[in-house]
Design a protein that fits this description.
With 406 residues, the protein is α/β, with parallel strands linked by helices. The chain has helices at residues 36-50, 53-56, 95-106, 145-153, 166-175, 198-211, 218-226, 229-242, 251-258, 260-275, 281-300, 305-317, 320-324, 328-332, 340-347, 353-364, 367-376, 384-401; strands at 2-10, 15-23, 60-65, 83-87, 110-113, 131-135, 157-161, 179-180.
Length: 406
């Protein structure tokens, strides 16, 4: 079974929930060779048994239902404060479906109409929906102004899907949309170099450059880190966490204990957090999930330790353009990196690119590409859901450990 998630944001770019994308096995790109009813049943059962918080944390799960599975008692396995019931756009409507929607609404479940293209006023399910999802690719904002006004007047929550740019996000917000889904939040706002971020970027680049020398100096690293009290605190705290809170008496000891590759990874994580302070928290989380996921996939593909480390760094740097509001070429300029990382991120080539493709495909629910890349890498694809869940858990642990709060 594959399950991936796509974030849904509120107007403040805080994560409101995650839409779950899923597939049961290798025979179908959508529902795993079984009915959509069986696929959804498998997802609900899997989430219940493994713990829904392991995939959506403390947010809402948006899960697709068809006219068959909506009648299953398995729906109630997930509590109404953890799940939004999404009705598929081509659902067959009858009296039984309407009665079922009334019943689950009485139990506290929110109903969302997915990829809504119908006339709002006359559509039979409109009165029972809490959330209306408009796909901006198929229903551009300019074509739905009247229906949007009607829905808002009736107290509906509007969710804009496939939001690709900041301009679309702003336009939808002005129209009254309060939930947003799409890649707009991770794309750079190209406006030249970000002056306010440059000093922080250069500080970290100096540290990474030292780490890439043939014979890095722990003394030089410790001296550079020691010039920044906040960075000193964070490095000491990280080392303490890594050593199970044994006494960490100096920066040099902390660096020696962690080792060069681990230092580089942690400094990069801290750099991304510092540079991304005015960006959605989810962007940092995605970089961490990708980092862990890429490293695990590289290990499963029997790559060398150096390539496993490079794969993890590639995942971390894969959102640097969005964090810095620069092109990826500008964002990576001046960083001493193994050639395989810019090859993958800039040129779409090299030994790490199949891993990058696999991760992006998995995030999008593009299961055909996911399977093709996993086969190329000679890894068993049935491990990917477990690896993805582990990556989410690891990312959450890292975010907690780099908090500035003592």
């Amino acid at each position: 079974m594959f399950i991936a998630r796509q974030p849904i944001f509120n107007a403040e770019l805080e994560v409101y929930g995650y839409e779950l994308l899923f597939r049961l096995n290798n025979q179908s790109t959508q529902f795993g060779g079984v009915s959509s009813q069986g696929a959804t049943a498998g997802v609900i059962t899997g989430l219940y048994e493994s713990g829904i918080e392991n995939i959506v944390e403390d947010k809402l799960a948006f899960i697709n239902f068809d006219e068959l599975f909506i009648h299953s008692n398995a729906l109630e396995l997930i509590k109404p404060d953890r799940m939004v019931v999404e009705m598929l756009e081509k659902i067959r409507i009858d009296e039984g479906l309407i009665e079922r929607l009334k019943a689950i609404k009485e139990k506290g479940y929110q109903i969302a109409l997915d990829d809504f293209e119908e006339a709002y006023q006359s559509y039979p399910l409109s009165p029972y929906a809490d959330i209306i999802k408009y796909d901006l690719m198929t229903t551009p904002l300019g074509t739905i102004t009247t229906d949007v006004a009607l829905a808002l007047a009736q107290g509906k929550t509007l969710l804009a899907e496939k939001v690709e740019t900041q301009d679309e996000f702003k336009q939808a917000s002005l129209m009254g949309f309060t939930l947003f889904q799409g890649c707009f939040f991770s794309k750079p706002i190209i406006a030249g170099h970000s002056v306010s971020k440059s000093p922080t970027k250069l500080q970290y680049f100096r540290l990474i450059a030292e780490l890439k020398k043939e014979d890095p100096s722990y003394e030089t690293l410790a001296d550079q880190i020691g010039q920044d009290v906040t960075l000193t605190y964070r490095v000491m705290r990280m080392a303490s966490v890594r050593s199970n809170h044994d006494l960490v008496s100096s920066i040099r000891y902390a660096l020696t204990y962690m080792g060069l590759n681990e230092i580089e990874r942690w400094l990069t994580i801290l750099m991304l957090q510092d540079l991304g302070k005015d960006k959605p928290d989810e962007l940092m989380k995605i970089s961490l999930i990708r980092s862990r996921f890429a490293q695990i996939v590289a290990k499963r593909a029997m790559m060398s330790y150096d390539f496993q480390h490079a794969a993890g760094m590639m995942g971390l740097f894969s959102v640097l353009d969005g964090i810095l509001d620069q092109s990826m070429a500008e964002a990576l300029a001046g960083i001493s990196l193994p050639p395989s990382i810019p090859e993958a991120l800039l040129n779409g080539s090299g030994p790490l690119y199949p891993i990058y493709e696999l991760i992006q495909a998995y995030e999008k629910g593009d299961w055909t590409t996911t399977l093709n890349r996993s086969q190329e890498l000679k890894i068993e694809n049935y491990n990917l859901y477990h690896d993805y869940r582990e990556s989410i858990a690891w990312a959450n642990e890292i975010i907690a450990s780099i908090s500035l709060e003592p």
